[in-house]
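Its record is retained below.
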Amino acid sequence: MGPRVRGMLKRCSPRRDRIGAVLASALVLLAALALTDAPAIAQERPRTLLDMLFGNGLQQPRPVYRIDPRARAAPPAQRQPIRRARKPRPKRPAPSAAAAPTAPTVAEKADDAKTVLVVGDFLAASLAGGLEDAYADNDMVRIQAAANGSSGLVRQDHYDWSRQLGPLIQQNKPAVVVMMIGSNDRQPIRSASGTLALRSPEWDTEYERRVDAIASIVQKSDVPLVWVGMPPFKYDRMSEDMVFFNDLYLQATNKVSGAFVQVWEGFVDENDGFVYSGPGVDGQTVQLRNSDGITMTDAGDAKLAFFAKKAIDRYMAGETSTAVGKIEPGMQLPPIANAANAVRTPPMSLDDPSLDGGDALLGGGSGPALTLQTSPRDKLVLTGRGTGHVNGRADDFAWNDKAGAVASGNNSIAYRGSLDMNKVRAEQGIKPPKPMPSILDAIMDDWAKQQQQQQDTPAKP
């Protein structure tokens, strides 16, 4: 370093010292101000990005808010709910008589109407109600219900049907007796010898005897018996016992030549399980059983009557009803002749309109007309009589008068048909073949021939 530069440094050193002293005093003053007025400065100046990221090292106190009670706003008034005026509902018109469900028309019973006596337990009462509706329009059939809801064949101390049934038949003089019982019989039998447990061998024997006694009472009264079987119930054990009861009822009914009505399939599904709802008598799905799974609804009563009515009608077939016994004006009686018995038909013109086709829709025509003459089918099936001989008809299989069916003679084999086989043999020299020997004769003949050949053959020298 040269002397000139050294001189310049010496001249600048005092000025540099003064500047350094001023800067040092300024720094001290700033540090003092920072320690005393740092919170006020931090509150006055806005926060920078560095302050938000790293903070300024000072914890700012939260401002204290004071509420002046004089400046408190009054509470808002409670809102009142707005009530809207409801429009008056139009009154529904009362259902007319036509819209109300119509009850079945009950015909006034004739004086000589036949009585159907229905006896048994509470299910018999349901059956009687269904039969009353089923025969409501028949003035020749009267339903008489004589059921005891809590009765059965076990508790004879409560109600003894073996003593009560005979007087009921004598009093009502029914044309048919309908019995339906067994729902209350799932209990022990108490007798003089002791108590018999349910479904024990002794219980089964005693119960079968009582069932046969009921059937015998009806038979001795000279009245047909229709015994309606038990339906299934909600509980499986109860349904199992009903199957056993139905078998006893069927056997007892057959002994007196009565009719047993099986209703089981009408109250089960395709898996033979109990159902609450099922098809009614009109084919629509309806509720057949009440919620207890034991009693019947009105639809169930109608279905019981539907099954029983078929058997009752077989015994009441000779009785006439209003629809059959009275001839209304304009009614056409069925023809006496049967079309199946016609031998010839009247000629038909080629321009007859009926040749163009039927004038009724498919399925809309009437059923086969009733006639008073027996058809050929009924003659053959019911009475065993044929249709008779009619010349020229398709079923005329008789021989004509030109030759007899069988030639005269005693030998049925030689004279079979209209050709004399012996005459043909004599003219043509035909001989009948020899009869074939039996197997044993053929073996013996063959052995004899072999022996003869061996004897005829000369021995070799």
About this structure: Confidence is low (pLDDT under 50) at residues 38-42, 93-101, 320-326, 401-407. The longest strand covers residues 114-120. DSSP finds eleven helices and nine strands in the chain. The beta strands are 114-120, 141-147, 176-180, 189-191, 194-196, 225-228, 259-261, 277-279, 285-287.
